[in-house]
DNA sequence: TAGTTAAATAACCACTTAGTTTTATACACG
DNA sequence: CGTGTATAAAACTAAGTGGTTATTTAACTA
């Protein structure tokens, strides 16, 4: 994956308001005002957050009269997860206290990822 | 997980230099100068990046005479992955074009996570 | 046409970030 | 002791972020 895209994705996730917006979008499309409602924050602030999420590829938007419904776009989330997956075996091994076996396991290529 | 901790973790990951440092640390401990070597950047800049990674709980540091060896601390990476895992089933379903089944699957709680 | 609603844009502010250079600290070695 | 080495800290700068209020655009409604 393009490093700039990962930058944008992780940066977008590094904000609790934006993570809450994504969580909300898991249960379906929502308009900007619907998304803004739970927050003690102005509408333009939410629009800015949405622009960040859109630029990161995490949401996309449609058109319904005046409304611009947002929906979750999970591909970028998958890309971030894929990046993190490269570390998964590391911490799993480490949690078993088997650091010394890490390289053996890696060279065998024997996990299910 | 504490939201501030997730903030710090994702923010730390949103920088290619820091991700490269983490990748380097996968193959074992390294000193600040060793970590700085591949980058066209001053030593204090790397020290700052390491402080960000340390504050995010992604690395910890020891002491060996003048050296402050850094090692990967995978717990924070695991926490970030766990957060993203809540979205995994969503995109997996979506990729199969089975959006309409998402809520059924969720309410059954029937995946292996 | 005028009024209302939904959202974006503009202009601004305080704070943070990522880098710099310079200086200081801590330790090892002769 | 003084010198080199490894790292951190200080002070600064340019650019980015996250919020505000006020304004504008676009579309529906009466």
TrEMBL record, chains A, B:
Pfam family, one: HTH_20
CDD domains in alphabetical order: HTH_ARSR
Domain HTH arsR-type: from-to ranges: 1-92
InterPro entries: ArsR-like_HTH, HTH_ArsR_DNA-bd_dom, WH-like_DNA-bd_sf, WH_DNA-bd_sf
Any one GO MF annotation of this record: DNA-binding transcription factor activity
Official protein name in the record: Transcriptional regulator
Organism of origin: Spongiactinospora gelatinilytica
